[in-house]
Amino acid sequence: MAKPIMAKATAVWLVDNTTISFKQIADFVGMHELEVQGIADGDVAAGVKGFDPVTNNQLTQDEIDAAQNSPLHKLALKFNAAAQGEEKRRGPRYTPLSKRQDRPASILWLVKFHPELTDGQVSKLVGTTKPTIQAIRERTHWNIANIQPIDPVALGLCKQSELDAAVQKAAAKKAAAGEVMTDDERRKLVSTEQSLGMDAEPKIPTAIEGLETFSLSDDTSDDEDDNTSGLVDADSFFNLPSGGGDEDEQP
């Protein structure tokens, strides 16, 4: 549900100028009921000037009257045709100042692990410019030596669903072009939901990699018994012929 602009100031005006319940005002402006009660008590929004929603084309007087007459009536924002589609803006998204320093790391992650994404897709995901993306792709960025790739989802620059949608779109475009993908590229083009649904493949520990043909069972006990049966006692190697040396020493 759409919320009015200047929600707190609108709540102040409604508290001061109407008899609408705190619950109705809270639902309309997107605040907690106790917070609206705090406005009425003077504990919240002290010094905030009320914002008239009727004059500013956000509510009609009929809507206010209906809410005052019925505590169950929910205030509805006035329809504004000019505001339709406003939430679907084109171009790069706005990135808060606190997260702008993380954009190069997320761009490097996308370029490294999803090279199939276009500069336009990367720009929309993390809210950056194409020259910056191109500089990181070509490793000519001024700070490229200190940039470490970090998942933009982990940094909060985009949602996992948005990244998956961009990856799937790139996969469909590549398939339509008839380009042959390698196994690594195909794995990168799999969404998170698909990868989580795959069966886990058994992996061989690196310590015994290359020894797959050898058995690790206890069947070698029989072979060891056969080998030990053929062993010769050490004394037999040093057992000299009897009496041979004594005969030569006699005069």
From TrEMBL:
Ranges where the record places region Disordered: 211-251
InterPro entries in the record: TrcR
UniProt protein name: Cytoplasmic protein
Native organism: Ascidiaceihabitans donghaensis
